[in-house]
Protein: Nucleoside phosphorylase domain-containing protein
Organism: Triticum aestivum
Amino acid sequence: MAPPSSEEPAAAQAAGAGAISKVLVVIAMQTEALPLVTRFQLVEAAADESIFPKGAPWTRYHGDYKGLHIDLVWPGKDPVLGVDSVGTVSAALVTYASIQLLKPDLIINAGTAGGFKARGAGIGDVFLASDVAFHDRRIPIPVFDSYGIGARKTFETPNIVKELNFKVGKLSTGDSLDMSPHDETAILSNEATVKDMEGAAVAYVADLFSTPAIFVKAVTDIVDGEKPTAEEFLQNLISVTMALDQAVMQVVDFISGKCISDL
Ligand code: ADE
């Protein structure tokens, strides 16, 4: 094959050298997902073209944007209670199914998070997670203890960090919005700056299937602040979702025409 000519557009040159073409965005809440659906002009997969097993509330939006095929999935509403299926179980399931069925080149797990002001987080800050771990899986038996914590480095993206100026910090994941004293000890030990309910679960599944994954988290509430978490989270959800939307667009714009090794 002839080498790409220097007159070719960057995207075409990169395509010849294994450019990223399929991006999977995993998002837990509808409120977080819809601005991105609009931003990338994605369309919802119709019921008769659903790739997911019958009965799963998981929802997929898809479309093309700047040479990339984007699939955005969210775990949908709980079939009984009608609220967003937040948390690690739903996130792991939808990530697993999406990797198997869509074979993405890259996963972006985007969402909101609690931030620790003692570690430099403020409301509306956007973080790229350098590491993830769980803070509510306690198994005090040698080796099982490390398995429970599930600490891992995320896929390194030095060029995204340099270019887009996001903050970088460690992310700790658990299935509760609030923070028990046990969680607090574990989060401190994980050296986390941000805290969410999905990241480490998405990372676990992505690692199982050798799929690079990055974590973009926007801070809605200050965990070590004065305000009750749930109240502060709900108060800031809409405005911080706009910051998240902007950040994910910047990441996707950066990715367009690039190879995994360029990130
Ligand atoms: N998402 C937004 N705020 C959060 C918090 N404080 N804990 C876990 N997930 C969150």
Notes: Strands lie at 22-26, 43-44, 59-65, 68-74, 106-115, 126-134, 152-153, 167-173, 194-196, 213-222. The pocket of adenine is lined by residues 112-114, 177, 195-197, 220-221, 223, 229, 233 (CB under 6 Å).
